[in-house]
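Continuing the series of single-chain predictions for the mutant panel. This is the parent chain; the variants come on the following pages.
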Amino acid sequence: MPEHKPPTRTIPADGSERLFFRTTWKGLSAVEIHPAPGESGLAEARSFHDIGRHLKDADVPVPEIYHYDSNNGVITVEYLGDALLNTRVKHLISHDAWPEVFRLYRQALAVLIQMQTDGAAGFNNKWCFDSPRYDAGLAYRNEVLYFLRSFVRGFLQYDPSPAVEQELSELACRVNMIEERDFFLHRDFQSRNIMIKEDKLHIIDFQGGRSGPMGYDAASLILDPYVGLPGWMRAELLAFYMKLIKDRNPSADMEKFPGEFRLLGLMRTLQVLGAYSFLSMTRRKHFFLQFIAPALSNLIELAFHRDFDDLIEFRQMVQGLSIDQGGKNAGQG
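Parent structure:
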């Protein structure tokens, strides 16, 4: 009996240029992942393999890697089914099953903190195909400039003042003021990158992992526009996550953490607005259009917190932005 059967059908991808196929490996259900084109795709595949093996060795619930061909970048991994946390949670919300929603998110945060801490032990930054750590430079290049280029100038066709970019540049510099930045950071830890198999959560799309602060991935999940959790649940989940940190490290100083969470949440929201705009306009993946309005709502709410009173020009700009239900710019004030 052959170890591997040829792929049978394509599995839909979200924003990735990789291709996913159902297959089998030694009689087990599996997924064959073909890399994005070019050297960058091969580098991304190497990171998936190296980081995935590391996380699996640390008992983080990620899919098992059955085979990796370093020549063509094709990876065969465990098939986790098709149940996304996102799909399950939205179904539960539609039935007002909030206790079950809360249970699943608590489980997700418990898995997250395990990944962040256990995944940091022995992590080799040479495995990172993009950049080795999340810092002020990355926040400026990949979040501030991405937001201004793809969302503000590209999607909205709006020309921001130089003062807006200056304020956001200074905001990105605050990332380096966070003292603890040596945890494992997934950088896309949201409800569509968490699978449910036999009532257990599993993390996928970890190839962009690097070192960074804890609050970024927590903000990515709690503020996730794909779901749009109500404010009261966001507050309860943040409190639960902070308790998890304290349980893991009783000496942890949690006084600064809410502010770090808001800062990283704002940076993450800049990133997703850039990504949704790029994916919908450039790659014609119109699925993402529906999430621009809730992401912009998150951005406005965060920007007007007193932590960011110095973002005068930025506040003025975002206050005048509005997106209609179809995801298009409805004008600037």
